[in-house]
Every structure is written in C-alpha cells, then in structure tokens.
Amino acid sequence: MPTLDELLAMIEQMRMGPTGMVHVINTGVAIMRRRYPAGLVDRTFTSRYDLRQITPVMISDELHDIAVRIFNLPTLSEGDLIENDVAGMLDRLEGADQATVLTALIYMHGTEAGALKSRTGIQ
Hints:
Layout: H1 4-13, H2 17-35, H3 38-41, H4 61-72, H5 83-90, H6 95-120
Helix pairs in contact: 1-6, 2-5, 2-6, 4-6
C-alpha cells in the first residue's frame, strides 16, 4: 500500500490519477462480475447514494459526484475503461482532490461488495 506522499507523487508528478482510477474500476468490476450475477453488478448508483452516510470518508459534494459518475461509467461501456474516459472529469482537480476521488472509488467498491454479499449470500 503506497503512502500518502507516494500516492500524491503518482498523481501530481507522474500524472497517473486517471490511470489509477480506471485500474481500480476495471479490476473491481472484473472481480464482481466473476462472483455475482451480472444483473446485480451492472447497476448504477442513484443520486440518492451517499458514501458519506455509510463510511467515514470526508469528501465534498463535488468530489463525491465525480466519484459516483466515474463509478457508474462501466454500466455505459461495453469494455474496460481507459484513461480518456475519466481524464476530463479530473483535469481541473488538484492532486489531493484526485486522491480523494480515488479513495472514494475504493470505498464504493467495498460498499458494493458488502451489499452484494448481503443480498446474495455469496462470499
């Protein structure tokens, strides 16, 4: 697990924010699709979904909305996401804000996994 300084260096200096985010999304979706029924995995989070109500993540409304939009992208795509799919949403964000969005995406996969385990009984 990278330190915060290493994560920020990857995002700010190496400009790998979009790469990290599509990796998290593509990997998470691939794991979920192998484990759970596609009809349950390939659903979008609605506008009512609020990560802050179920986890300790501190995130602004703007960054939360960006994370939800990125999280929902695979439902609109037939294949894996690529960096260009998310880069436009991240261009104007500082490195720390991109790190916050990346953290939110990781938590979102965790909440989705927990919900699917609860609903299906599949571990």
